[in-house]
Each structure stands twice: as C-alpha cells, then as structure tokens.
Amino acid sequence: MIAPAALSLAEIGRAFDERRLSARDLAEAAIANHARWDAKLHAYSLWAPDIARAMAQRADDALAAGHRLGPLHGIPIAPKDLFAVAGMPTFAGSPRRLPARWEQDGPVIAALRRQAGVFTGKTHMVEFAFGGTGVNAHWGCPRNPWDGVQERSPGGSSSGAGVALLEGSALIALGTDTAGSVRIPASATGTVGLKVTAGRWSTDGIVPLSHTFDTPGVLARSVADAALAYAVIDPGAPRAIEPANLTGLRIGIDDAMWRNCAPGIAETAKAAVDRLTRAGARLVTKTVPEFPAAFAVFCDGGVSAIELRRFLDRELPAWITTLDPINAPVIARAAAIPEETYRGRLARLAAPAASVTATLADVDVIATPTLAVTPPLVSTIHDTASHWLANQALTRNTVPVNYLGLCAISLPVGLDAARMPVGLQFIARPRQEEALLAAALAAERSIGTARDVLGVPPLLA
Prior knowledge:
The protein is built from 16 helices and twelve strands. The chain has 461 residues and is α/β, with parallel strands linked by helices. It has one domain: Amidase signature (AS) domain (Amidase signature (AS) enzymes, Alpha-Beta Complex). The strands form two sheets. The protein has a ten-stranded mixed sheet with strand order 3-2-5-7-6-11-12-10-8-9, with helices on both faces. A two-stranded antiparallel sheet has the order 1-4. The chain is globular, with a radius of gyration of 20 Å.
C-alpha cells in the first residue's frame, strides 16, 4: 500500500491513470494513519471511515469505466466542521447538532463531490470559528505534533485541518478564513494555506461567523497541491497554473510586518526571501499604511462578534446558552453594540480597502511572516482575557488581508527558535489568485516543500 504522504496529488493522478493505485488504497491508508495517530492528535470531531470507503469505491468504479474526473478524484479530503456535507452532521464546534439545513452540500463541497473526492470526516474547530487559538471547551484542542513535549496550539479556527494533513488521514483539508483561520493553522502546522478574495468562492452551505469577511479556504501539503485544489473549486480558474519566473518577480517588504516577531521567525522568513532574491526576485521596500489602519479596526472590536451574535439570535438562539465560556462574554457584549458603532467600523475600512490596490500596484506580492509569534501553549489559554490576548498576537499579520479584501497564501519555510514551523505569507491584490499561486509555486520550487525545509514533526517521528 502506498502511503498518502509519499506522493503529490499530481503523482497520485498519474498512478491512477496507470492503474498502479486505487482510491480504496488511499482511503485505507488514510484510515490506518488516523487509527495510528488519533489518540495523540485528535484532529477530527467526526471520523467517517464507512463514508470514506463508500466514496472511494464510487471513485474506483469511475476509474474502472475509464473516467478520472479531475485532480481530486479519489483524494481523501477533510472538511472543517462548519461545512455542510450531505450525510454528515454539522456541529460548528458547538455541543449540539445544527438543524438539517446545515447538512446539505454547498457549492464548494458539491464541486469536490463532482470530482469524486473522498470525505474522511469533519475536523475540529473553534466554536463557530470565533478565534485563532484553536481551543474549544466542548470538543478539546487538537495537538500540534511539532511540539513533542507540551500541548501547543495548532492554530485556529480551523484547528484540526493542518493536523489531519500531518497525520496522513487527508491530503486536502478545507477551512474558512475570516481573520486568518486558514493561514494561522497552516503556519502553525507547517502546511500550506490559501485564502482567496472574499466573494470569489460561495459561502453557501458554510455556517457563518462574519458574512462580511468569511472566505472558504484550502490547506494542503504543498503549494502544488493547493493549486490543484484551487483549480477544482474555482469555476473560473485555469486547468493548470505554472510557476512564475522568479527573475524580476517584485516582492514587497513592509518593515512594520516584520517587527517584534518571536525569536527565529523574522530571521527564518527573511532567509527564505533572501533565497528568492538570489534566484532573481527583486525586493521592493514598501510601506502599506492600509495594513495598520485595518488592524486597528480589528483591535477596536471588529465586526465578527456582532455579525455572529446576529446570526445566532436569528437562526440558533438555543445555542447561545451553551457557548464556550471563553467566547461567551464577548458574544454577549456584542448584542449591546449599537448599529452606528458597527456601521462606523465598516466605514473606517472603506477608504483603505479602496486605496490598497493602488498602493500594491508596483509589486507582485507582499511578503511577511504569516505569524509574528510562536503558537502558544494551550495551558496559557485558559480564560477570555488570555485567549483574546493570544488571538490578537496570532492575527496581527493576517487580519489586514481579510479587512482589505485581499488574497494570500502561507507556505512553510523553516523552524523558529522554539523549533515550531515558520510560515511565509504572500499577499496579492484582490482576485489575483492565479498570480499569487504562480509566485508561491516559484517560491516552493526554489525553497522546497515542507518535507524539505521542516523534516518530520517530533510527535510523528
């Protein structure tokens, strides 16, 4: 049996075409990997091996009939537990099963089902996706396998997504990104996380946190795999995205996004950028005033708590009384925030969101460390104050992307002083996902994949 971690999605596709591999082989390998590591890692809130086997059989039946439906045909995929998936319950990290409407495929899940993707279960998440630390009083927090001694945050809110990839129970994971919830866990676990422009992919069939900023996203083991997933989900994407030419690629550096990082983070990310410049990329010193302006609105309270509370009041009022004690006070206070305050925060974002495209016109991407801090120990996140202090630190370099309507990707480039993964974030203008992926593919070709630059997580060694 071929281990899923041994092959890229492109290599799996060729193996399918040559009849050297079956979807059932991949499903059984994923099931075996989960059985081996689940007691330590706790990536899933719902593990569904029978569903995975049935979907794999249908994928193999199509292959036997001469039909490979695309690059995700037969691939084990782990959706976050706020994606509605027919045949699976949705809890959105809450202690109660959501109503039946949240068990009907939305467009993202439907696109993967049409490709004969294989759903392995639902991954853990912060309740209602409200927070980047990964903790959840109802379901627990997945273990970040990069710390073999202490329980450390795997990032959130898509907390089980990167962990599922590392344990080998999925080859693609689905998350959502409202303030960094795809890129934060990707950086924390040494995987790749793609956040597309808000509105590019439908959020239908996804339990909302913030209707203004929610964005479906993909986590993958490599940029190349993420690009294939992007091509499947995005209705307007080209069939293939080629790496950009590094020679002359304009990489913007805003010094403010590199300051006050935990030991080893800025140094490791800079070493990766230096490698790209030696290969021909051109650095452009860039001040982006829109970044701090956007983050200031987030630090003043943002809009997610307000929009979540309104959703709960309207559709899930019975869930309010059982909210995670860490988040419950913040969501309770949101009910009393005046409409004029909410509208004022959105208004403060209008001007920087309108001007940022022009500000970034002379660069292809902006490069930053994805996280400015080492993923915190779970033991240090024990109440509302400690959670939101950690959350603000984790989201410093990710929130501006959401609040300004940009797209971004995080790719692993090394380890920090605590021996935890460091992500390099590329940020691009709105709806420039193909150019963003092309730049990231070129960077990955120069720097290497996670296996090249990180090695094996200690807990999985």
